[in-house]
Design brief:
three-stranded antiparallel β-sheet, PaaB, single chain, alpha+beta, 115 residues, 1,2-phenylacetyl-CoA epoxidase subunit B, Ubiquitin-like (UB roll), PaaB_sf
């Protein structure tokens, strides 16, 4: 019997806590998904605590084609959607605050009018 078609590649993911996201851990070779899960538990649960392990056959994972990846590129400038697009606001806010808090403003807080 040839071993070429006997083993399948599986990808292993785990969660440390019930609220944490799944994290990729490693790949393994196994004859079926049941054995793959047992191997993942033996290899992974000894090392660190986990609440869930997922084993996915690699051939069942679909990746994007090159054409689909090209559709992800943005044509227009959408920097405002990322935090780097707001980098100028700190400086602008500081200038605004400094402009507002002049001597006359501060003196008015005490209830006395400046002559």
């Amino acid at each position: 019997m040839s071993t070429k078609g006997f083993y399948k590649e599986f990808e292993v993911f785990s969660k440390r806590t019930h609220t944490s996201p799944l994290q990729y851990q490693f790949s393994l070779l196994a004859p079926n998904k049941e054995i793959a899960l047992i191997m993942a538990q033996e290899n992974f649960m000894r090392r660190e605590p986990v609440v869930d392990i997922w084993v996915v056959e690699r051939s069942h994972i679909r990746r994007m084609t090159q054409e689909e990846k090209e559709s992800l590129h943005r044509i227009d400038n959408k920097d405002y959607r990322t935090t780097k697009g707001y980098g100028y606001l700190k400086k602008k806010w500081r200038q605004y605050e400094q402009g507002m808090l002049d001597e006359q403003e501060i003196m008015s807080w005490g209830g006395k009018k400046q002559e």
